[in-house]
Amino acid sequence: MFPRVSTRSWHWQPSASNDNSRFLRISGLSVKYVGPGDTDADAACVRTTDPAESGLFYFEVDVVNKGRDGFIGIGFVSHDFDKGRLPGWEPHTFGYHGDDGKAFHNSSSGIPYGPKFGTGDRLGVMFNRAERTIAYTKNGIYLGIAFRNVQDDVLYPAVGLRTPDEEVLANFGAVPFKADVSAMKAEAAYVIEQQIRSMPLPVDKTGGSTATLGHIIFSHLAQHGHWGSAAAVARDMLGETVAVPPSTVQDFEARLRVRGAIVGGDMDGALAAAEAFQPGALAACPHLLQRVKCQKFVELVRVRDDQAALAYGKAELGSAADLGPEQAELLSDILTLLCYEDPANSPQGTLLQPAARAALADDVDAALLKARQLPQHSPLERLYCILKAMQSELEREQHPAASLVDLDRLLGLPS
């Protein structure tokens, strides 16, 4: 969700009677200048109560009225800012001004940046904390970066007004933005992802990264039965120092028979194949064994052999009183299938969908691997899980770059 559209209810900070923000009349997210506007000493600035969120933050401001002179500044300020100065005139403040089109930071003179703006224009402000830049849009058109090397970590959206009748209205995402923020997000993400791709690979203790990568790739391919590709990696990256053991091939093919039986709806065949692969594996997991039996009941309902389903249920499934909460609920759901003329379109119809078989096959396979003391996931898959966990933790800590990266796209995985 970028640029970040906050679920907060945004507000301008209330004015105080002893500062220049008393020259501003605030109504919702509207700000109007009602001061004398004679000199720069009459300028007034207001910020939001909350700071810009991490990562990529964007908001827009409509110029409702440029007022007498259009001395309107839009940008960001720090927590403790001078309410009697336009944004950009003071340290730790950044502003783009409508009367001259200049960008201001810690200066009252500014530098040429973009076009002037006035009544009817919509200005957008983008704070990219990952790249430490601030950029603007005008009427949806990207104007480029105005400020680089922004060292302030905490900045607040702000507007400053200076002459009578100037009025602006801010939008923090409650209504659609004028600019194509998705495109700006994509560009920012591309920069971060290119930086990641250009990082050198870690070197293992033997002095090279090729062997480390080769072993990771080889083990992943071998675990998922891609024997030809695994052999190619062994040859091209590992100098034929490894090979897929025949026992690995046999184990994989045996597990594949179990999966194929479940996905094909043959629960008896699946139980027989599982027992042949690892005797007692499913008996050691009574909850999983119960699910397999329930799936056989479902398969009988699928072909509308209700009498056989009832007979099987009485003989093999037991009563809800003897089961745990989840198993009892599943038993109730599959029995309910018998009440419908068209079970597939009933509220419990998902039990008849291919996804139910696939999920059961995954869980049975995991149980067989565990019983054989084999890893359920390859090192490559575990690394992926670690990366996802690291990204989630960095996002939780509001690291500015973490939320910009689409890890699946970066790794070339299907969305």
Describe this structure as you would to a colleague.
With 415 residues, the protein is an alpha+beta fold. Among the domains are: 161 residues, SPRY domain (Jelly Rolls, Sandwich); 126 residues, no CATH class. It has 11 helices and 13 strands. It has a 7-stranded antiparallel sheet with strand order 1-2-13-4-9-10-11, covered by helices on one side. The chain has a 6-stranded antiparallel sheet with strand order 3-12-5-6-7-8, with no helix packed on it. A hairpin with a 2-residue loop joins strand 1 and strand 2. The two termini are 15 Å apart. InterPro entries: B30.2/SPRY, B30.2/SPRY_sf, ConA-like_dom_sf, CRA_dom, CTLH/CRA, CTLH_C, SPRY_dom, SPRY_RanBP9/10. This is Ran-binding protein 10. It comes from Symbiochloris irregularis.
Write the layout of secondary structure elements.
Elements: E1 24-27, E2 30-33, E3 44-47, E4 56-65, E5 73-77, E6 93-97, E7 102-104, E8 111-112, E9 122-128, E10 133-138, E11 141-147, E12 156-161, E13 167-171, H1 181-197, H2 210-223, H3 227-236, H4 246-263, H5 267-277, H6 286-302, H7 306-317, H8 325-336, H9 354-371, H10 379-396, H11 407-410
Antiparallel strand pairs: 1-2, 2-13, 3-12, 4-9, 4-13, 5-6, 5-12, 6-7, 7-8, 9-10, 10-11
Helix pairs in contact: 2-3, 4-5, 4-9, 6-7, 6-8, 6-9
Organism: Symbiochloris irregularis
Domain B30.2/SPRY: 1-177
Domain CTLH: 251-308
